[in-house]
Structures are given as structure tokens and as C-alpha cells.
Amino acid sequence: MDRIPAGALDERGLEKVRRRVRREREAESNRPLSVAIMGQTGVGKSSLLNALFGTSLPVGDVKPATCEPRAISIPGNSDHMLTFWDMPGMGESLSENAPYVAMYLAKLLESDVVIWAIHADSRSTTADARCLAMLLAGADQDACGRLLGKLTFVLTKADTLTPPPWIFDMRGPHGSFLPTPALAARLERKAAHFERALIEPWGDLLRTSTYNTGEFAISDERLSFDRNAVRYRGHFSEEVCARYRAAHPEHAAVFSRLRDGHRVLPCSALFRYNLVRLMVGVVNKLGPAAVFRFQRMLGDVAELAGVPVATMREYGNFLVWDGVRGVSAFDLARFPL
User: Fold this and answer.
1) How far apart, in Å, are the Cα atoms of 2 and each of 20, 21, 227, 228?
2) Cβ neighbours of 1 (radius 10 Å)
3) How far apart are CA 221 and CA 231, in angstroms?
4) Which of the two residues, 216 and 312, has the higher pLDDT score?
């Protein structure tokens, strides 16, 4: 919409502008929310989407379930439409072939949300780093910045990392999975390893932002703010976050949210581990209109973490903590539920 000086309009003109803004907002809010997920073959892309959004996308145990980009539109909560771009595994299709690279790039730039999935048990960063470099090489600087701003990197199938064991925190008929301290530290090391390889190298192309509650008013050569948002230009690393927190401890929560924009997040679709944190991180990357559409589609986000006890018992033996009775057991066979 073109800028119109407020002083140039009478009340009739202002009402005309208001109606136009309402129409455009309504049209924007009714567009489907689009989500693209990509990664190497077999990292569990479809499983993650199913866990996040309650869909039933086919999952391939032996051969890839997705061989070409598929647009799948389904109604979310409140009947708001959600469009998935289930992208082929990069190991199957993304190569030096320019049309394939252009196709990937176009679909990712069109999407509101882009999730890049990496198997948590992987050590090598070479394939993913090469694919990211190929995508960015096919884009101008503005498109590179927009793509990097959309990306959320996740380590999938964190449940495969054992021992040490996982803890099941049981609260009546439901519970949630948590890693033991040793396993949590291992996941953090893996996440830091992939952050250094996939995020840190892109330096000044990176951006991260979060909402402003109206209390934040700090700026410098990289940090800026307005009434609605706080923005940082560059890689908001753990070290950068620590410096800002030390200088402005009253805004620690803001800096934590900015930091989340450049984290690699371990998660598990099977255990529903960190799905809430992933969803919050995704929302933080969206523009205002897309956030509105996203909120219309979501239900109770807290339910993302819940796992029925009956389902948990099918997964094997775990260290179980009964949060109601305050007792634990190492073997479900010796633990009366």
C-alpha cells in the first residue's frame, strides 16, 4: 500500500483507507499457511510434520516416501488451511542439477516456514552444508537473507541417542520424555557442532528477530528495535547472547528469544520431545500476518509434549518418574502403573 500523509485525508478518506486495510488483512489471514520441510533422505521429515500438525503423511521405512515436491493442503484447527511442501530427500534429488536447485529455492522462498531436518545421530555436516551452499549460490543477496531468516534447523530422531537413558515424567495417564543430564549435554554438543557448520559461516547474511513488549529500547550497530520487534543483524551466537545478557540483564528474556533464532534444536517426533520449543521458535520467525494465520491453525500447543502412558510402554523400558506419587523405577516390569 502506498504511503498517504494523514493530513491529506479528511474523515471520509481515512475511513476508505481503514476499509482497504481491513480487506487486505482479511485476505492475508485467509491464505493457507505454507510449511516446507527438507533434509537428507531418511531423517524423518514426514514423521516430524505428522507429530507437529496431527497429519497423516506417509512415512517410508525402507525407500523414500517423497520422490518429488508434493503440495498437501489440509484444514487445521478452526478449519484454517495448511499447505505442506513435502520436499524430496536431498540425497535423492538435490545435486548440481540447476533446475532442481532452482525448484528447491523457489518452494522454500514461497513458504512461510522452512524446517531443515538433520538426523541427530549424524556426525557429518558435509552433505547438508554443501546443499545449503548450492541453494544460496542460486539466489541474490536479498533472497539469501530471506531464506536464512526462514530456516529452522532441527536434529530429528533424538530418541535414537541411547544410552544414557531417557526419563519419562509421568503425570497420571500422560507424561513427557526428557533426556538425562548426560544425554542433554550430548545433544547440546551436537547442536553446537551443526550450528558452527551450517549457520555461523553465513555471517552478515543472518538475521534474527523477536517481538517487543514495548519495554526494549536498546540499539547499536547490529541491534535495532521498533514498537513491535527487536532485530539483530548477524549470527546471534551463544557468546553474543551472553555479552548482551551481562550488559542488560533486565532484557535476558528478549536475548534468549533472539538466540533461539540461531539455535539448532534437537527433537523427537516419536517421544514428542522439544516439539513445543520448536513450534515457539517457528512462530518467532514469522511476520505479523503469517503469525495471525499460524495462530488460527494451532490448537493447544502444550498438548504437543504429551505422551499417553500406554503408548510409552510400547517403546521399551525407561527410567520413569511418577510426578504425582514422587517415586521412580528403572524397570516398568517392576513398576505398578
Assistant:
1) 12, 12, 21, 21
2) 7
3) 11
4) 216
